[in-house]
Amino acid sequence: MKKILGLSAVALVMSTGIAAAANNPFSDVPADSWAYDAVSTLAADGVIDGYPDGTYQGQKTMTRYEMAQIVARAMAKTDMEKADKALVDKLAAEFADELDNLGVRVADLEKKSDNVKFTGTARLRYDDGGINATNTKADKDDSASHSHIEYWIKGKVNEDWTAIGQIETEFNNETGSITAYGGNDHQVNKVYVEGPLFGGTVKAGRYGEFSSYGRIIDTEISGAEWTWGDPNEGLSGALTYGRLKHERNMAGTTFNYGEKKNSEGEYEPNDMGISLGRGDDAGAYTSARLKYNFSPVTAMGVTYGHLDHITMEDNMYNDYSDDGADMWEIGFNASVADNLTLMAAYSKSDRDGVYDSVGDEIKTDGWFSELRYKKHDITDPGSFAIFANYRNVGALSTIDATVDYTENIKGWTLGFDYVPIENTTIEVFYINGKQVNATTNEGIQDADIFRAQMEFYF
Q: What residue spans of 45-118 are helical by DSSP H?
């Protein structure tokens, strides 16, 4: 079929007249024009369809106006090879005046082609070591290996509003089963709309909430967020209200408090976390944040957040409580030398008086700092970054922090990111640390962790 289209395109171009002024949109394209090869190639590659009705009419004379219509249709396509894109761009330059005369129709074709976008990330990950900073495992050695994929779907509702969704799934390479998301095959993490409101931008639905430096929160909430200003220039800010996922624990951390009898009268571990919410009600989160950019490489941010209920059930060290909590975060990032950046952030809550598995009070504040040399870019093969960071983060200082293994852990990390080929990254790091608060009656455990992963962006 492609060969037929190609021959038709050739016949179409060769059948054009040779005497016409180039500035007349209804003049013929000369038979010896370079457009002959361009149209033939694009037709053979399936980029060009022909006349607006989708057919080629090889016996008809092609005018510059008709050629421009075909070029406009080719310009509206986004899934072409680089060589074909170069030909389309060259044709667009040749017939620029005619395309300009088409005006809105060309613009509409381009908008329609961009109406829905699909992107995603595939990840292969292996973690090994004492992966127990936030759980009740008493052993000092553990490993985890998974394959993960997520899809993003973005659709233009109209000129101003966009609908966005994210779906992801995770496969446990060690057990050969899907173990994430409660055993479900997949999870819809985000579904929301985004558009202008009162001089700013609003998100509404289930979206990803992020505090100034991700120390208080970096997870999904169901609600609304209004942002104003340019986050990369000058002063900007945001106001948020929403509800967190039900049955979620503060910092994702679980503590053991001895044993309890189950419904069958048998003893089992009495494991529990500090629940975000009360009973069957999901926890509500309200926040305000500000950021100021002193320069393109230097900024400071502050976030205030409030949780309406944080519940700790009655156990051997704690009485039942479901009080709320105020949380604060402050941080900065700056370039300290050529190719060398520093960021540091501090977070704290006022939810004190909660105790861990050995009766010590759970830490309510946390530090995280990182020094990074260079910056990797997925569009630049060979680019890389080397980083070192330190964290000392209590389980009551964060809801869900942005960097993995930064809840209830104290220690340092050394690692690198590398781009071997376009749209692919390799990350390797090692964490040497220990728990901030004990999650078992054996006391504070080590949390030495090695990670190696590859991510593919499409």
A: 64-75, 82-94, 96-102, 104-113
Q: How far apart are CA 88 and CA 46, in angstroms?
A: 13
Q: Is 415 helix (H, G, I), strand (E, B) or coil?
A: strand
| Residue type, position 310, single letter | I
Alpha helices in 307-430 (DSSP H): none
Q: What are phi and psi of 89, to 5 degrees?
A: -65, -40
- b or e along 383-393 (b: 16 or more beta carbons within 10 Å of the residue's beta carbon)? ebbbbebebbb
> What is the model's pTM?
0.74
pLDDT of 251-273, one tens digit each?
889 999 998 887 788 888 899 88
Measured CA angle at 408 (ends 150, 446), to 5 deg: 100
Say what the alpha-carbon torsion angle 168, 116, 77, 8 is, to the nearest 10 degrees: 100
| Residues ≥6 apart with Cβ < 8 Å to 351 | 274, 310, 323, 325, 364, 396
CB 211 within 8 A of CB 217: yes
Element (H, E) at 43: helix 35-44
Structure tokens at 142: 């553990």
- Judged against a pLDDT cut of 90, whether residue 201 lies above it is answered with yes
- Give, in degrees to the nearest 5, the angle at Cα 280 between 256 and 364: 45
212: left (phi over 0), alpha (psi -120 to 50) or beta: alpha
